[in-house]
Amino acid sequence: MNLNFLQYLKKNLELTDSQLEQLFPMLNVKIVPKNYLLLRLGETRSYAYFVEKGLLRSYSIDETGRQHIIQFAPENNIISDRASLYFSAPSNLIIEAIEETTVIVMDHHYTDYVAELPGFYKKNEVILQHHVWHLQSRIETLLGATAEARYLEFIKRYPNLTLRVPQWMIASYLGITPESLSRVRKELATRHF
Fold it and tell me: Per CATH, which fold does 4-118 belong to?
């Protein structure tokens, strides 16, 4: 089976074909339907998910019931609730399939195996620091950028999602109202963007 996940591991963790062959039996491939919840509020799950095909999102819900999308995970992305995954804390996030999605479920069998590989921690540190850098940039954008700048950054980060997700989800991710997003898109259209 030719999985994107194996190519991801080969590239990012520099795994050999032999190491990938040993890992293959530990992989749990799961197809989840649209709207399926991989993680619910309050659950403790020690799983991370690699998206082979499809689209997931993680979001929180505030005290008024409004959703705040934290992350979209299209193909070749990993998504989890780190607090639940690493610290066994009840989840404050929900992870949901926006489309029918094929995921690789990474559980303790996978993490135990790759943690024993030579050089894993150094390579994993680079991946983790890149993720932290992205989150830091996202926070800076949410705190200081205009709605238009946020939308343009979204398009840069997720160039194929504008046609795959509803406008209200994009607005939630950007921290603006759907009406504000509509105004931004109309303004950009008048400038032939």
Answer: Jelly Rolls (2.60.120)
